[in-house]
Design a protein that fits this description.
Elements: H1 15-21, H2 28-62, H3 69-85, H4 89-108, H5 114-129, H6 139-153
Length: about 160
């Protein structure tokens, strides 16, 4: 297509690249072990970040109505984004529904009952325990959350 800007290749030289070019530099097995340690450390940070957000959000939802819905909405968005980066598909989907519902409450003035909020809290805790990427076994759960989110959003006070 003539209107598209052609892409550019950018050469990135890392410390590993520099060391690997030196005679007697990093051995392949050493580089592999360093990479494994680095990925494990990053994974631990992601897990900690998720726990830091999920526990308070679940507590807020269990004690609904929340005094600070904006903070709960922000936590749901953070969980959704972090879980998406970590390929935690079930948690991403559950957090997305939680965010959509909280956003409707915050922005549109929709109402959510305590029992409904507890469903989101339970779903977040359950989804956090699942480390797999296959969400097919959980499609009924996701369908129920979608229905619940649609119900809460339909209670929009500002347009009613």
């Amino acid at each position: 297509m003539p209107s598209e800007t052609p892409g550019r290749l950018i050469e990135v030289k890392t410390k590993f690249h520099s060391e690997a070019l030196k005679p007697g530099g990093i051995a392949r097995s050493g580089a592999h072990m360093a990479a494994v340690r680095s990925v494990a450390a990053l994974k631990a940070q992601v897990e900690q970040q998720l726990d830091t957000c999920i526990a308070p959000l679940a507590e807020t939802l269990r004690n609904w109505p929340a005094p600070d819905v904006a903070k709960a909405c922000e936590q749901a968005a953070q969980i959704r984004d972090t879980a998406g980066l970590a390929d935690m598909h079930l948690l991403t989907e559950v957090a997305m529904h939680s965010f959509d519902c909280l956003d409707a409450v915050l922005i549109d003035g929709a109402t959510m009952e305590r029992a409904e909020a507890v469903c989101y809290a339970d779903a977040l805790i359950f989804a956090r325990q699942n480390r797999g990427t296959n969400i097919e076994p959980f499609l009924p759960l996701l369908k129920d959350l979608e229905s619940l989110t649609t119900l809460v959003i339909s209670r929009n006070r500002k347009t009613a």
